[in-house]
């Protein structure tokens, strides 16, 4: 006997796609313009930190574009070929963005080491002014996402990315001022390495989390013991085993489990099932499937 309960829980406070479309598009336009400004003035001033930050901001533009695409795909309806729709695209985008950033960090560190060994003149004043513009643009872009950052993981990622970039630009401003007054060109390389370390720190966690979800691992915010204890506390539940939890997207999780009930409670299985579904929704599980078993039956699964 099998019973499948696919609950599709939609949060009323989920971000509106029209509002996010505008935020993402503005972010893409502003950051694209800034990439051009940074690259041009980076070449003119001979600043590696400006050029490397321009490369990083270019990856930000790609990340924003991919995040917007994934967000739209996640809202697409399911079909006969993709029964869960395209929700998993959000996980793929997170992993892809992490890989791009790690490659960018490798390039930044390599160029910084070369420039540190063979320093070249840097126009500190130009570096400071251009990076100051970066603080304004990245700060404004982060503000566009601040209202919705707690409603969707991809939006929160975009917000944090822009906020960190504003801080990185502040670091470039400081290096430009130091170079302007001290003429210590090697400061530019040091700041580039610091930028690389900052990016790598955030990217490493993103890579681990996205790879975990790609491998259908249990999402890091999910506590299996807590979930089992909650389900076991429901009336009519004797035991629960063969439980699996995985991510459908960066914001939605699914669960399957064998549910052991006493024979006299089997007629109440629909009530038990709906109670469990409600409990799971409060534990960040939006899709659940249960296979009922009688308590006097022998389970043949290896983890019973």
TrEMBL record:
<dbReference type="InterPro" id="IPR027469">
    <property type="entry name" value="Cation_efflux_TMD_sf"/>
</dbReference>
<dbReference type="InterPro" id="IPR050681">
    <property type="entry name" value="CDF/SLC30A"/>
</dbReference>
<dbReference type="InterPro" id="IPR058533">
    <property type="entry name" value="Cation_efflux_TM"/>
</dbReference>
<feature type="transmembrane region" description="Helical">
    <location>
        <begin position="126"/>
        <end position="146"/>
    </location>
</feature>
<feature type="domain" description="Cation efflux protein transmembrane">
    <location>
        <begin position="27"/>
        <end position="212"/>
    </location>
</feature>
<keyword id="KW-0812">Transmembrane</keyword>
<keyword id="KW-0864">Zinc transport</keyword>
<feature type="transmembrane region" description="Helical">
    <location>
        <begin position="95"/>
        <end position="114"/>
    </location>
</feature>
<keyword id="KW-1133">Transmembrane helix</keyword>
<dbReference type="Pfam" id="PF01545">
    <property type="entry name" value="Cation_efflux"/>
</dbReference>
<feature type="transmembrane region" description="Helical">
    <location>
        <begin position="186"/>
        <end position="207"/>
    </location>
</feature>
<dbReference type="InterPro" id="IPR027470">
    <property type="entry name" value="Cation_efflux_CTD"/>
</dbReference>
<keyword id="KW-0472">Membrane</keyword>
<feature type="transmembrane region" description="Helical">
    <location>
        <begin position="56"/>
        <end position="74"/>
    </location>
</feature>
<dbReference type="InterPro" id="IPR036837">
    <property type="entry name" value="Cation_efflux_CTD_sf"/>
</dbReference>
<comment type="similarity">
    <text>Belongs to the cation diffusion facilitator (CDF) transporter (TC 2.A.4) family. SLC30A subfamily.</text>
</comment>
<keyword id="KW-0813">Transport</keyword>
<protein>
    <submittedName>
        <fullName>Cation transporter</fullName>
    </submittedName>
</protein>
<feature type="domain" description="Cation efflux protein cytoplasmic">
    <location>
        <begin position="219"/>
        <end position="282"/>
    </location>
</feature>
<dbReference type="InterPro" id="IPR002524">
    <property type="entry name" value="Cation_efflux"/>
</dbReference>
<dbReference type="Pfam" id="PF16916">
    <property type="entry name" value="ZT_dimer"/>
</dbReference>
<feature type="transmembrane region" description="Helical">
    <location>
        <begin position="20"/>
        <end position="44"/>
    </location>
</feature>
<keyword id="KW-0406">Ion transport</keyword>
<keyword id="KW-0862">Zinc</keyword>
<dbReference type="GO" id="GO:0005385">
    <property type="term" value="F:zinc ion transmembrane transporter activity"/>
</dbReference>
<dbReference type="GO" id="GO:0005886">
    <property type="term" value="C:plasma membrane"/>
</dbReference>
<feature type="transmembrane region" description="Helical">
    <location>
        <begin position="158"/>
        <end position="180"/>
    </location>
</feature>
């Amino acid at each position: 006997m099998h019973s499948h309960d696919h609950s599709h829980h939609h949060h009323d406070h989920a971000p509106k796609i029209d509002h996010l479309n505008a935020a993402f598009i503005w972010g893409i336009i502003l950051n694209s313009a800034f990439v051009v400004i940074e690259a041009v003035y980076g070449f003119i001033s001979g600043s590696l930190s400006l050029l490397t930050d321009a490369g990083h901001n270019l990856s930000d533009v790609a990340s924003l574009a991919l995040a917007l695409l994934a967000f739209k795909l996640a809202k697409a309806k399911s079909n006969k070929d993709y029964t869960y729709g395209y929700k998993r695209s959000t996980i793929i985008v997170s992993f892809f963005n992490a890989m791009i950033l790690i490659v960018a960090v490798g390039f930044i560190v390599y160029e910084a080491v070369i420039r540190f060994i063979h320093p070249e003149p840097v126009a500190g004043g130009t570096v400071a002014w251009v990076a100051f513009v970066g603080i304004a643009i990245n700060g404004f872009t982060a503000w566009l996402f601040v209202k919705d950052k707690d409603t969707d993981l991809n939006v929160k990622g975009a917000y944090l990315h822009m906020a960190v970039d504003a801080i990185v630009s502040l670091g470039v401003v400081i290096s430009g001022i130091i170079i302007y007054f001290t003429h210590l060109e090697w400061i530019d390389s040091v700041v580039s390495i610091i930028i690389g370390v900052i990016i790598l720190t955030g990217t490493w966690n993103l890579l681990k989390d996205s790879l975990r979800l790609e491998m259908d691992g249990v999402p890091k915010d999910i506590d299996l013991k807590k979930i089992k204890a909650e389900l076991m506390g429901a009336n009519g539940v004797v035991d629960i085993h063969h439980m699996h939890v995985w991510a459908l997207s960066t914001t939605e999780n699914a669960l399957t489990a064998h549910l052991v009930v006493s024979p006299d409670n089997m007629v109440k299985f629909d009530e038990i099932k709906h109670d469990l579904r409600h409990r799971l929704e409060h534990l960040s599980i939006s899709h659940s499937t249960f296979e009922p078993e009688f308590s006097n039956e022998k389970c043949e699964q290896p983890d019973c």
